[in-house]
Design goal:
Layout (H helix, E strand, L loop, with lengths): L1 E6 L4 E8 L4 E8 L1 H4 L7 H23 L8 E7 L3 H18 L3 E5 H7 L11 E6 L4 E8 L2 E7 L5 H11 L6 H9 L24 H13 L14 H34 L5 E4 L6 H13 L4 E2 L3 H4 L4 H12 L29
Parallel strand pairs: 1-4, 4-5, 6-9, 9-10
Antiparallel strand pairs: 1-2, 2-3, 6-7, 7-8
Helix pairs in contact: 2-3, 4-11, 5-6, 5-7, 5-8, 6-8, 7-8, 8-9
Bound molecules: adenosine-5'-triphosphate (ATP), magnesium ion and fe (iii) ion (FE).
InterPro entries: ATPase_NBD, Gcp-like_dom, KAE1/TsaD, Peptidase_M22_CS, TsaD
Family: Belongs to the KAE1 / TsaD family.
Protein name: tRNA N6-adenosine threonylcarbamoyltransferase
Length: 357
């Protein structure tokens, strides 16, 4: 089985070809970073236009790299939401056109399900597992019971983790995109140099909150006079900024670790097994956080499974793989499937036939 995947829901134009036995035959990601950098964030109209300009060529390149003609494919998978709707439309129309022209099954993939199932790509990870989904727009703990079967255990009541990284980077003038910039800066910093809060730790339930931490970072930066450097020029403040970045990352690590520890307990009660704990989404590329979560999983007698960093941030291999998983179960979609800007994972529960393994 071979599936072409297309991803255009944010600021990466991506096309990939993946096989049923988990081989990635092509995985092309075209980042729009340079186009959005002047604005310090993703501009939806620029993103949609750029996807339109590049997607056809990228799909052709992915097919050429895989050494396949469209007729050799078994299905076309595309991110059909959630995301910036203009970009999602570009991908969905492209995928529908190919599916129609070549009479191939069409698979409308939820972007979050792409992140959620990536850990199964090329591994023997079985259902159920505990998933910490941490990305630019999401922060959730879920029990993944099968393809299309997600049970939400907790989530953020305000900002997503990736958002907090991006805002911290912007505040400190560390550059864009924020996550990798904060991680780089933090590597040279002393996390104990600033005292930051750890919202929600010790509270009942499995929800998260990051807005208070974000505000605390702003106040600390103000107090230390770190705010007025021109972008990209940390000047004499580089050391203090590194300290604040490290303190922020450490606080996030503490929060994620505490919540995941509790979630592993709940998971064990509910499913009778110790995880495994899977982390996915762009923030899962962060090495410090991966180490922290690995420690938590081990302490609970479990293990952490984290996709390689390049498969954590947005890519099309994860969409093609989710397509493989759905196609195997016969979960194809009609060509009039409407793209969905908002599409929580739990709503996939409506789809039938959870996988047994
Ligand atoms: P979503 O998946 O919620 O729709 P998205 O697709 O825009 O959002 P992803 O590509 O999955 O997001 O993740 C991007 C986010 O991950 C950004 O907020 C980015 O700062 C963050 N990120 C990427 N690399 C790192 C890193 N090394 N450390 C921390 N955060 C990171
Ligand atoms: Mg992105
Ligand atoms: Fe994403």
């Amino acid at each position: 089985m071979t599936v072409l995947g297309i991803e255009t829901s944010c600021d990466e134009t991506a096309a990939a070809v993946v096989t049923g036995d988990g081989r990635i035959l092509a995985n092309l990601v075209l980042s729009q970073l340079d186009e959005h950098r002047p604005y310090g964030g993703v501009v939806p109209e620029i993103a949609a236009r750029s996807h339109l300009d590049h997607i056809d060529r990228l799909v052709e390149e992915a097919m050429a790299e895989a050494g396949l003609e469209f007729g050799a494919l078994d299905g076309i998978a595309v991110t059909a939401g959630p995301g910036l709707i203009g970009g999602v439309f570009v991908g969905v129309m492209t995928a529908k056109a190919i599916a129609l022209a070549w009479d191939l099954p069409f698979l409308a993939v939820n972007h979050l399900e792409g992140h959620a199932l990536t850990a199964r790509l090329g591994t023997d990870l079985a259902f159920p597992y505990l998933l910490l989904l941490v990305s630019g727009g999401h922060c959730q703990l879920l029990a993944v019971e099968g393809v299309g079967c997600y049970s939400r255990l907790g989530g953020t009541i305000d900002d997503a983790v990736g958002e907090a990284f991006d805002k911290t980077a912007k505040l400190l003038g560390l550059g864009y995109p924020g996550g990798p910039a904060v991680e780089r800066a933090a590597a040279d910093g002393d996390p104990a140099a600033f005292a930051l809060p750890r919202p929600m730790i010790g509270r009942p339930g499995l929800d998260f909150s990051f807005s208070g931490l974000k505000t605390a970072v702003r106040h600390a930066a103000q107090a230390a006079d770190l705010l007025d450097d021109p972008p990209g020029d940390a000047g004499n403040d580089a050391g203090r900024k590194a300290d604040l970045a490290a303190a922020f990352q450490e606080a996030v690590g503490d929060i994620l670790a505490e919540r995941c520890g509790k979630a592993l307990d709940l998971f064990r009660e509910r499913y009778g097994k110790a995880g495994p704990l899977v982390v996915a989404g762009g923030v899962a590329a962060n090495r410090h956080l991966r180490e922290r979560l690995d420690g938590v999983a081990r302490a609970a007698g479990s293990e952490l499974m984290a996709p390689p960093p390049a498969l954590c941030t947005d890519n099309a291999a994860m969409i093609a793989w989710a397509g493989v998983e759905r196609l195997r179960l016969g979960l194809t979609d009609p060509l009039d499937f409407a793209a969905r800007p908002r599409w929580p994972l739990e709503e996939l529960r409506e789809t039938p036939a959870p996988a047994k393994t």
